[in-house]
């Protein structure tokens, strides 16, 4: 599974501790099927390339970012005219929707640097925490629930857990397959942000399944029943205990 997550150095960003916020503002705007949104991605590895590529195909402009700007440039150059490259700060400012596509151990430092720029935005957390890579932070994510832990680093953002539970190679190969489509689970506390991500998932060629609030993201984090379930909506709901 380590192959799915390309390392973006934790030195990417600098210091201020994020804290959880009780009430989240509505995201900047919700995407309807015909709306175009600017997508900023924090990362430029396989996860960023896969999700960014599918969003580009759906007509959304995407900015990739990395500490090594050349890495982001290389990724953008391979994906067409709607793709661009920037720093993590630029990508956070650019995106109506921003995607976290970094190793989980980088999340605290990403939050320290970018949380103020992400207030009021829909923030898609496509990361996973693994003990062999992320150490004590993975243990904390397992104990607390990864959705709630991630949100604590981005106060004011409408964080949504999505696109983390299925291997990127599978997402690439199964996108837009004939019905029944591959189902992807989505969890979040902000209804407008959940709707935004639900619409994006549909445009990318998947069948979104809403599991509930961020606390339910535990159902499909690494090591839990919905992780790596490759099925249609009916099968995914069954695996998650939602039927």
N to C succession of SSEs: EHEHEHEHEHHHEHEHEH
End-to-end distance: 28 Å
What is the CATH T-level topology? Rossmann fold
What form results from the Cα inertia axes? globular
Q: List unreliable stretches of 5+ residues.
A: 1-33
Q: At CATH's second level, what is the architecture?
A: 3-Layer(aba) Sandwich
Reading off the top of the CATH hierarchy, the class is best stated as Alpha Beta
Number of strands: 8
Question: What would CATH call the homologous superfamily?
Answer: NAD(P)-binding Rossmann-like Domain
Mind describing the biggest β-sheet?
8 strands, mixed
- Report strand order across the widest sheet: 3-2-1-4-5-6-7-8
Proportion of helical residues:
25-40%
Count of individual domains: 1
Count of DSSP helices?
10
Mean pLDDT: 89
Structural class: alpha/beta
The radius of gyration computed from the alpha-carbon positions, rounded to a whole number of angstroms, is 16 Å
Short description:
By secondary structure, the chain is an alpha/beta fold. The protein has ten helices and eight strands.
What secondary-structure arrangement, pairings included, does this model have?
Blueprint (H helix, E strand, L loop, with lengths): L38 E4 L3 H12 L4 E4 L3 H9 L5 E4 L1 H7 L2 E4 L6 H12 L3 E4 L5 H4 L1 H9 L1 H7 L5 E5 L5 H7 L8 E6 L2 H14 L2 E6 L20 H8 L3
Helix pairs in contact: 1-8, 3-4, 6-7
